[in-house]
Amino acid sequence: MNKGLILVFTGDGKGKTTAAMGCALRMISHGKRAGMVQFFKLRTPNSGLRTKFKVWSFGGGFTWRVARDENAKVVQKAWKKCRKLLKDPKYDLVILDEIHIALKYKFLTTAEVIKVLKRRPARQHVILTGRGAPQAVIRLADLVTEMKCVKHPFQCGIPAQPGIEF
């Protein structure tokens, strides 16, 4: 049975966005189209895959560096783009990157996000990422993976590395 799945990548460990992007590459290898909306992230360079994988980034970086009212405005712009993609059957996979952070800080309501997810095209897959996935989203999901940090270079004073952390 071909059914659009809802996948949740959450937890305190690294790899949530990377796992989502891996799924996008897998989708593209099957000739499908994927789109990703990034909440709270600076623009990500888009590779030569533009026709099969589009990325829209909304935000000025980490939430503690940007005023709450500015974040609220940017989240609404990102959510508007999400709603558009979640209605568009030409996207086989839609990634809502760091949406759990928008829910945690109450820039969006979990009920509204779930309502939109339930109305998407029947065969469209969706991945939601970010720390602290709400229980209601976890219950709705078909697959939930929690990333757990066992060891991280930050703990040894090693700064974020291009291509690894961002």
Give a structural overview.
- With 166 residues, the chain is an alpha/beta fold.
- The chain has a single domain (6-149), classed as Rossmann fold (3-Layer(aba) Sandwich), CATH 3.40.50.300.
- 32% of the residues lie in helices and 20% in strands.
- The protein has helices at 16-29, 68-85, 99-104, 110-118, 135-140, and strands spanning 6-11, 34-39, 53-58, 93-97, 125-129, 143-147.
- A six-stranded parallel sheet has the order 3-2-4-5-1-6, sandwiched between helices.
- The protein is globular, with a radius of gyration of 15 Å.
- The chain starts with 5 loop residues before the first strand and ends in a 19-residue tail after the last strand.
- Which band does the percent of strand residues land in? 15-25%
Radius of gyration: 15 Å
Summarize the helix and strand pattern as letters. EHEEHEHHEHE
Distance between the termini: 36 Å
Report the CATH topology name: Rossmann fold
Which key phrases capture this entry?
166 residues; alpha/beta; Rossmann fold; six-stranded parallel sheet
